[in-house]
Amino acid sequence: MKFLRAALMAGAACLATEAALAADAGITPVIKGPVAEVAIYHVADPENYPAMMAAVMEEVGEMPGLRNGVHMRSLKDPTLFADVNLWDSLEEAVAAAKQVETEDRFKPFMNSIKEIKLFGHFVPGQDGSALRKFLADGAVIEMAVYSVKDPAVQEGPRQSVYNALQKTDAFFGGLPLSPAHEGEPYIDFIAWSSEKEGMATAESMMAMDEHKAFFANAEKMSMFEFFEIYDMDGFE
């Protein structure tokens, strides 16, 4: 998988660069604490893929640093799947992904993936326990992947939107994900009561003057998709 290999190389290069800069300056690297690993991809055999993923996650669960995660499939495209896994650190996430990509025991799993739409590591806007909010019965998950015009003005208006969403009936929970490295996209990972209610709530928010700064700052939407959760890891 050339895309995954390139992503892993980029992650490793960033880690090496940050470590070198930190050593020279005598400071702690910027990227620290938990990270969210996000993968969105098409598979060759969607009917049998969930069982294959479950077997792989039993192995990955033994690797250092995995906290929990959710595994999803698209409501509209049966071949499109997505995973959001929370790790204690970027180093541990990259190390685990490299094992999955290179070790023979994972080859059948890797060969089952036809196309990777997105693979990367992101800074979660909340503690990993926030993923529990996504476990509500019947939750529909929105994955919005986008770039912004000005990262400097993103976080304030974005948090305002999330605060407002908490007051709506359709919103079950959300996990804002910010890029770990410059040039990567932002992701809004939101659980709704239904796709219809989620779309209606989003349209209502877009019409409000107090949230125009957030929506005006969005530059390009590279993915907007609704998913359902088919499995979870790391939850009691």
From TrEMBL:
<protein>
    <recommendedName>
        <fullName>Quinol monooxygenase YgiN</fullName>
    </recommendedName>
</protein>
<dbReference type="InterPro" id="IPR011008">
    <property type="entry name" value="Dimeric_a/b-barrel"/>
</dbReference>
<feature type="signal peptide">
    <location>
        <begin position="1"/>
        <end position="22"/>
    </location>
</feature>
<keyword id="KW-0732">Signal</keyword>
